[in-house]
Amino acid sequence: LTLPLTEKAIIGRIRRQAEAPSGRGVVRTGIGDDAAILECAAGFEVLLTTDFSLEGVHFRREWHPPDSVGHRCLVRGLSDIAAMGGEPTAAFLSLALPADLPQRWVDRFMSGLLRLARQFNVQLAGGDTAESPAGVLADIVVVGRVPAGRALLRAGARAGDSIYVTGELGRSAWTLSLLRERGPAALGAKTKSRYTAHAPHFYPQPRIAVGRWLRERGLATAAIDVSDGLSTDLGHVCEESGVGALVYEAAIPRPSGLPTSSLHYALHGGEDYELLFTAPGSRPVPSMIAGVRVTRVGEIIRGRDMWLVDSHGQRKALPARGWEHFGGR
Ligand SMILES: [Mg+2]
């Protein structure tokens, strides 16, 4: 099946794919009316986050299978909800598609997105479609909720707090570097296992349960998801909290089997979708939360500067190096 399907046909198709599992959840009226109606429970606040996924910037059709593009599109929003300690409830998707895009690509994109949505009981409640003059453009809005006044914020870290990260850092950017240097062949034979072997890049998991655990325990003083890289995202926490940070190079959890140069990816690579949080130095933090490893990587200090401390105790400035995306700049 190739485009152009009419807009009406695409929406009908997406609507059938997105049918809610037996009326659970907050969506009272979803796709098919002028606006969605969502229930809001008393005592909760609404979380809203929006993220672009642009072909050539966030993915490439020749590198990423369509279901991975759909998965990654939604995970960007889910991860932001996780970083707030919230529970995702609904999503809205606006899609602009080139006229020559095969309908099969769209179907597989939707199946990747909706599989992840079902995993977290998130209902696709609306969106828009249009023809794109060039490339696939997807804009995802994720709605979530959190008990009033209890969301985890970037502001709140204080001198003396410890800095923690979940999981491992740098794996996604390392996969991207392989793609950039040698193309998809660098990942192995052209089978599905190529992508599952590199799941942290193609199918990252949002840390919803960890964020919720931290919020319920009141343990974290600040939190953020590591979407743009440790240096950049820790930089956001420091800026919003008005503090500085020390990061212990040897403590950063890096995947085994990666070259020594992977420190660069762990510090500055994006799209790991792990959580970074701070907690008072006096409070014990378990080494596993909700089945995910948690590692202490540094501490919050007074001032505004970030420092990387090597194994000899030498400090050097840790610049917040922004995520480079896929533009090949
Ligand atoms: Mg974020």
Biggest sheet descriptor: 8 strands, mixed
Which ligands accompany this protein? magnesium ion
Q: What structural class results from the helix and strand content? A: alpha+beta
Write down the overall geometry. Answer: globular
DSSP, total strands: 14
Strand content: 25-35%
Taking the alpha carbons of the first and last residues, their distance comes to: 35 Å
Topology order in helix (H) and strand (E) letters: HEEEHEHEEEHHHHEHEHEEEEE
Low-confidence stretches: none
Radius of gyration: 20 Å
Mean pLDDT: 92
Helix content: 25-40%
| Total of DSSP H or I helical runs spanning 4+ residues | 9
SSE arrangement:
Elements: H1 7-17, E1 27-29, E2 37-38, E3 44-54, H2 66-83, E4 87-97, H3 103-119, E5 123-131, E6 137-147, E7 161-166, H4 171-182, H5 192-196, H6 199-202, H7 208-217, E8 222-226, H8 230-241, E9 244-248, H9 262-268, E10 274-280, E11 288-289, E12 292-301, E13 306-309, E14 315-317
Parallel strand pairs: 4-5, 9-13
Antiparallel strand pairs: 1-2, 3-6, 4-6, 7-10, 7-12, 8-10, 9-12, 11-12, 13-14
Bound molecules: magnesium ion.
Residues 80, 83, 224-225, 227 line the site of magnesium ion.
